[in-house]
Amino acid sequence: MTAAESMGLAEASNAAIYATMVTLTVAMILFAAYFSSGRSRAASGAASAQVSSNSGSVAVLDRSVPSEVRDPGRRVANVAMSLTWLATGFLTLALVLRGLWAGRVPWGNMYEFSISSAWGVLVVFLAMSTRRDLRWLGLFVVAPALLTLGLAVTVLYTEAAQLVPALKSYWLVIHVSAAIICAGAFTVAASSAGLSLVQSRRVRSGKQWHGPMNSVPSAEKLQTFTSRLIAFSFPLWTFSVIAGAIWAENAWGRYWGWDPKETWALITWLVYAAYLHARSTAGWRGDKASWIAILGLVTFLINYFGVNIFVNSLHSYAGV
Amino acid sequence: MTASPALETQAPPPPLDAAGFWRWVWRQLTSMRTALILLFALAVASIPGSILPQRGNNPLLVDEWLEEQPTVGPILDRLGFFDVFGAPWFAAIYLLLFISLIGCVLPRVGVHWRAMRSQPPVAPKNLSRLQAFHEQTSALPPALVIDNAVEFLRGQRWRVRTGTSDSQVWVSAEKGYLRETGNLVFHLALVLILAAVAIGGLFGWRGNVIVKEGSGFSNTLTQYDAWGGGRLSSADTIPPFAFTLEDFAVEFERREAERGSPRLFEATVEVQRSPGEPIEPDLIEVNYPLTIAGAKIFLVGHGFAPTFIVRDSSGATVLDDAVVFLPQDGNFTSTGVIKVPDSTPQLGFRGIFLPTSAIDDIRGPHSAFPEPDDPSVFLSVWEGDLGLDSGIPQSVYTLKTEAMEQIGLRALIPGQTWDFGQGEIEFTGWQRWASFQIAFDPGKEAALAAAVIATVGLTISLFTRRRRVWVKAQPADNGSTLVRSAGLSKSEAADVSDDVREVLEASEGKARE
Ligand code: HEM
User: Domains of chain B, with CATH numbers?
Assistant: First the structure.
């Protein structure tokens, strides 16, 4: 590949990132409008809460309810969903172009890992949205994804270059791709856990259902949703840690060396294990479990930002 | 699981007699709440180990830290904060966690075993209070409705029990036992991981050695710069191999983006796997260690060894060697010392080697790029007693100058000779050195196997839904049959309405064929 061609790829990748960000910004505004209109779920939300308490267990989230289609707020949210799909397409393109330019997987430094994580967040959200109505969650998924992209292009941007030798391993591909999906699922789970805390506070305060949170399912449904996401991502995180250990064994001669990065991976793992236990422990299943889900994401972010940038670790690949 | 842990309530206060008290302690220790708290405790206890430097990873940094913090440092040190993962309080937490785990899981193995061999429970009296309750009428007789349902359920691998009560015929079915099986396998595999880690810790060993280009290494304890083994390891278990570092190739990024990032490390070696065997060429790269008799040789670092010739005042050569300098930054500004005990008086040099020389007011002499594009060395020369005869072992990287006097300071480029009065030093060039970690861990295969088993068990457990369905059929007044069905999900958030719908369809649909 000539230098000119490769510069073309780099610029195309960057352009695709900007296209993603513009599209996501519009999607975010529309999701916010839908969220603050807050009308759509009021009726059906109350009805399904009735059903679930009646059956003595938490029911699944609604699939789309036909009568709501007529709601104009709904249409706004539908446009936002389509834009999110489009943005995810742009972002996929950006990652592919970046990978072509660098001649490797696009996970060589913090910039690349950040845009990949934003991709993970969007993909997990969209994948879940094919099976249930997640318009209420859109704002809380698109906003962190956009924030991550913004950080990536402003603070973390690095020209593509080859991998440092320690990162040249197919275990990297396995380890990091699992971690990216986990980043997405943990973020979506923390968003819905946060919403569930707001919902349960509203219920406890005994106020009428009005305002933006009306478009959001009940606290119990949100907790169920959170726990499903974590039940899906916890084995994946386990797998990612194991793949990392195999890689570490190949690179440094030990599969576990209490390097800060490894230690925080374990901390994240322990917190999510605690979450799964909390969901089966009397007195912990509700709000406390939601707090643990948020704490889990916090430990994940500490590992990513804190350890990469501030701590002297074998894993310092920040490139910033 | 038979009793849902969610129903666990606050335990009663401890009884007063001794046996009762210990039983109470055991019940507390093996409760879910304790497991939860211990998991958190372990997470929190790990944090200082990721923030403070640790002896195991970075002993030099620990010493620096202790020097800078003369008051807090020693206290933290006494409490084990510089070796968190070997500290007794850290061990106490994870041992308690594992005792709790075993105490919790073993009884559940028995319970689950019996549950798997017994029949599903009898259908409850009132289905309408259960999940996904549905009622319909059928033209088929009750027995046929239930037969159809049973056939369908068996085909779907439900465990089925049938019966009659009053005028009703019923079927009770349960599915998803694998959830508990997977959960138990997962928890027990965690114990296996701990055991495998312990085996590696007790019998394994690990050593580090720096080898200069053209030099050799043979695997005996005395050749290592650092060696550490578990309590049950011994020097006899070290396989007797040897290798020579023929060449060490390095490349760094020169483009503006990520300039100075490493791109290639490659050690070309000549290996003799055991005495008497032929010598064979091989390569050691990052991520591609060399395995010999269960021990693995990893490439972990590299640096420069500038070469010098030192002559005393009579002109006789007292040193002609490549001296290992240790890199201090990413651009390989390297420091080292040269000790010349064979001259009188003894001579010592402190040096800074710069592969690409640069100098500024803030950093002083430093290297601007990790490749030797413009090498130079800054030397200070000292005269006096090196202190090598005191009997106290000295690091080869530090010069004890208490009994010495500095007599000169000078920068040299390759080929230059400096006459400092009491003799002269010639800077002849440089070589590279590579550092290797040689490790033997007999527990790692078992740890991997246990980790894979744990992950498989976990995945099966989390993706299996444990649930029951019931169908009851009874004659209705008008000659038709009243069919009622409901389900109960025993795992989180599982939805049984699909199961109920399917079994009801089957109870009808099969007969129409
Ligand atoms: C090293 C410590 C432990 C870890 C990492 C751990 C992790 C986990 C995880 C990830 C789950 C959810 C996955 C599944 O259902 O298979 C789980 C479930 C469970 N754990 Fe643990 N655990 C530990 C110790 C314990 C202990 C000490 C107990 C007993 C008090 C315990 C009892 C349970 C029970 C009863 C469940 C099932 C919950 C349910 O079915 O919803 N675990 N554990």
Answer: 20-115 (no CATH), 120-175+465-507 (3.30.310.80), 204-302+437-453 (no CATH), 305-431 (no CATH)
